[in-house]
Amino acid sequence: MTKSEFRYAHHPDDVKKYTTEDLRREFLIRDLFNEDQIKVTYSMYDRMIVGGAMPVNTVLKLEPTDDLKAEHFLDRRELGIINVGAAGKITVDGEAFELNHKEALYIGKGSKDIVFENGSEGQALFYFNSAPAHHTYPTKKITKNEAEIVELGENRYANRRTINKLIVNSVLETCQLQMGMTELHEGSVWNTMPSHTHTRRMEAYFYFDLEEGQAVSHFLGQPHETRHVFMKNNEAVLSPEWSIHSGVGTSNYTFIWGMAGENMDYGDMDAVKTNELK
Questions:
Q1: Nearest by Cα to 126 from 108, 100, 96
Q2: CA dist 174 to 2, 153, 169, 215, 227, Å?
Q3: Cα Rg for the chain, rounded, in angstroms?
Q4: Is 196 annotated as a binding residue?
Q5: What is the DSSP string of 125-176?
């Protein structure tokens, strides 16, 4: 079973007038994991798709939604998947890939049959992003050991974190999709601070590994007109090209960042000084 949603893009001047309810309806993506269901949200921000698959009693096949107007989901797209649950399996055109916790799989344009399957111990939870593609690159599994690792932040600023670049052009070739995972160390709660914008690409954040009863306040908006959205475990949020994207939690957590747009340079960003945010 597949459930789909559609989200329009927004002018920053309009977002300034949004209520809390408006912000949550337009940018927050909830209920990504439901038993024996695939959920996809199609966004007009660089036509990024954010989704989740939770196979329990049956295997789940990734079918094209009406928004794609395609015979197969990846006829004109590429796909990145990160397993945020227990071990599971993804089969791509007959080839099986075992995906453990926090491992990733890139699937290139033109793949036809993508099937999600739960493992024998615990519950697999497959979080994915998809973006339009113009070329076919090979399907490839990426473990944490194969990721490009970057250590950032300091304890005194409560932002010490490990960045795992999983699906990026320094690890494997993609058309435009980039994905990675940032793990906050114990005692650290701030992510992507100092913050930045990058008008060359949009971004989506998925927060997980959050303790029961805790929350993350995700910040978005223009640097001089910031807004916030409180988020629970296993929820995602869209970040427009004109928006900052940072957050702070009531405990440490992990988040997955996914990007699509015209620029593949991870370091291409317009920094914003923390004391200039409004």
A1: 100
A2: 26, 28, 6, 33, 32
A3: 18
A4: yes
A5: -EEEEEEE-SS----EEE-GGGSEEEEE--GGGT--EEEEEEESTTTS--SS
Annotated binding residue at 218? no
Edge-to-edge strand order for the sheet containing 60-61? 60-61, 114-118, 88-92, 95-99
Structure tokens that stand for 219 in this block: 């910040």
Over residues 229-242, the pLDDT tens digits come to: 999 999 999 999 99
Q: Are 208 and 253 in contact (CB under 8 A)?
A: yes
55 within 8 A of 90, measured Cβ to Cβ: no
pLDDT at 274: 93
Residue 198 annotated as part of some ligand binding site: yes
> What six digits make up the tokens of 145?
């050991």
> Does 2-276 carry CATH code 2.60.120.10?
yes
Q: What are phi and psi of 199, to 5 degrees?
A: -70, -10
**DSSP 8-state secondary structure symbol assigned to residue 223:** T
Residue 166's pLDDT band (cuts 50, 70, 90): very high
For 70-111, the pLDDT digits (tens) are 999 999 999 999 999 999 999 999 999 999 999 999 999 999
Q: Which amino acid is at 268?
A: D
Residue 245 among known ligand-binding residues: yes
